[in-house]
Specification:
This protein is 40% helix and 15% strand. It is α/β, with parallel strands linked by helices and 474 residues long. The structure holds pyridoxal-5'-phosphate. Pyridoxal-5'-phosphate binds next to helix 6, helix 12 and helix 16.
């Protein structure tokens, strides 16, 4: 290979960029298919304190057998104590359509920021659905099919999860009905079309198709919808049909488990680059993509091998479950049909403002992340929409990739940390979880570019109201 091909793109080479331990300056770190991890990493046996139990929504007692929402294989993964769980060959075969995903060194961003920090990003936007979500969608479709389920029901916010599951279902021959949060259904018609192209049926939520939907519509015909409502509708649908199960795209332990393929790949790729991260940054909606990235690394922090590793969860200021929520027992959904989880929550009846980062509009947070947050192993920051888009545009102009608005939250904090390195003169290694591309979010970019994008204040009063409606658990 000629030397010029090994160089980072024009202008990015003013600083000495020799990577420690490596002989070559590289921009992309690509694993071969044979190096794709063949098991998921389960954090549960490595937690310094056990995770609080999940409570049955009706009895409010600890249960390992919540309502029959999921197939057996998924239920057992939810509470498994096995450290590594084999990825079925059929699931690996689908993963190989786009996995392993690339890890990049962001030379051009470093240059633009004039920072001594080394910035790496792991890009999940190369999947057919454009995000990390197929990592669990494919696995869930597979297990449901194997156990004889004919049809799935699910919710979707921005449409990322619905489209990922639509693809998973069509691969394994399952029908899918998607309850799509109404504000996104109208803001992002292309994601609906994506789901329909993969064969799913999509309705805006709240919908007249379920009791929950009809109740919400009666109270507020203009309800923009929320993930909490859409989850309730999908669960009600699954309960109402014998051949149907429910599938969730984030928050649950088994979803985080399936996403750990991201972090395990990134670990190998960082090794190829001859570095180990000092800071890992990602966005959190329900917490799945970022947990998938950091859980394989946090083991080193828990075991004392890398005690100063910083892990920063980034959430929207308008829906700040970690930084402003209460750590308590709450329902995962609006109607109280889902298991009760111990998590940071803004209240299951909280209706987040119609942010563009639809995937971050969730009232709660993955119990695993909340637990690690309480134990002091991860940090959290809330950022607002306008600076997030500013960061997303800056990233697009130097690295090329137009990030999903969700992922742009993480870019904002990555840039802040890189600038802090410039101030302090420290050369830290930052690993950014870039959860997806923003090709279906261009209307939001359009709003930003034309100066019409507004910031939402933290809706303190509405959160107070929602917190008053928490379930009573003794
Ligand atoms: C859904 C989504 C998120 C938020 O969900 P998590 O479970 O927190 O990962 C983040 N980024 C993208 C691109 C998404 O589609």
């Amino acid at each position: 290979m000629s030397n010029i091909l090994r160089q980072p793109l024009t202008g990015a080479n003013t600083r000495k960029q020799k990577i420690e331990g490596g002989t070559m300056e590289r921009t992309k770190f690509i694993l071969e298919e044979k190096d794709m991890p063949t098991s998921w990493y389960n954090i549960l046996p490595d937690l310094p304190e056990p995770l609080p139990p999940e409570l049955h929504p009706a009895t409010k007692e600890p249960t390992r057998l919540p309502p029959p929402l999921f197939p057996e294989a998924i239920n057992s993964q939810e509470f498994s104590t096995e450290r590594y769980i084999n990825i079925p060959e059929e699931v690996q075969a689908v993963y190989r359509l786009w996995r392993p995903t690339p890890l990049y060194r962001a030379y051009r961003l470093e240059k633009a920021l004039d920072t001594p920090a080394k910035i790496f990003y792991k890009y999940e936007g190369t999947s057919p659905a454009g995000s990390h979500k197929p990592n669990t969608a494919v696995a869930q479709a597979y297990y449901n099919k194997k156990e004889g389920v004919r049809r799935l029901a699910t919710e979707t916010g921005a449409g990322q999860w619905g489209s990922a599951l639509a693809m998973g279902c069509v691969f394994f021959g399952l029908e899918l009905k998607v309850y799509m949060v109404k504000v996104s259904y109208y803001q992002k018609p292309y994601r609906r079309i994506l789901m329909e192209t993969w064969g799913a049926k999509v309705v805006p939520s709240p919908s007249p198709d379920t009791e929950v939907g009809r109740r919400v519509l009666k109270e507020n015909p203009d309800s923009p919808g929320s993930l909490g409502i859409a989850i309730s509708e999908a669960i009600e649908d699954a309960f109402a049909h014998d051949d149907t199960k429910y599938s969730i795209g984030s928050v649950a332990n088994h979803v985080l488990l399936h996403q750990t393929i991201i972090g395990q790949e990134a670990m190998k790729q960082m090794k190829m680059a001859g570095v180990y991260p000092d800071i890992i940054v990602g966005c959190v909606g329900g917490g799945s993509n970022f947990a998938g990235m950091f859980l394989p690394f946090i083991k080193d922090k828990i075991k004392g091998k890398k005690p100063d590793l910083r892990i920063i969860c980034v959430e929207p200021q308008a829906c700040p479950s970690l930084t402003k929520g209460v750590y308590t027992w709450d329902f995962g959904d609006e109607a109280g049909l889902a298991p009760i989880l111990k998590m940071h929550t803004l209240g299951h009846s909280f209706m987040p403002p119609p942010l563009h980062a639809g995937g971050l509009r969730y009232h709660g947070m993955a119990p695993i992340i909340c637990h690690l947050y309480k134990l002091g192993f991860v940090e959290a920051q809330a950022v607002s929409q306008v600076p997030v888009f500013e960061a997303g545009v800056k990233f697009a102009r130097v690295e090329g990739i137009i990030p999903a608005p969700e992922a742009a939250h993480a870019i904002k904090v990555t840039i802040d940390e890189a600038l802090a390195c410039r101030e302090s003169g420290q050369s830290k290694t930052i690993l950014l979880a870039l959860s997806g591309h923003g090709h279906f979010d261009l209307a939001a970019y359009d709003e930003y570019l034309s100066g019409k994008l507004a910031d939402y204040e933290y809706p303190e009063e509405k959160v107070k109201e929602a917190l008053a409606a928490l379930p009573k658990v003794s």
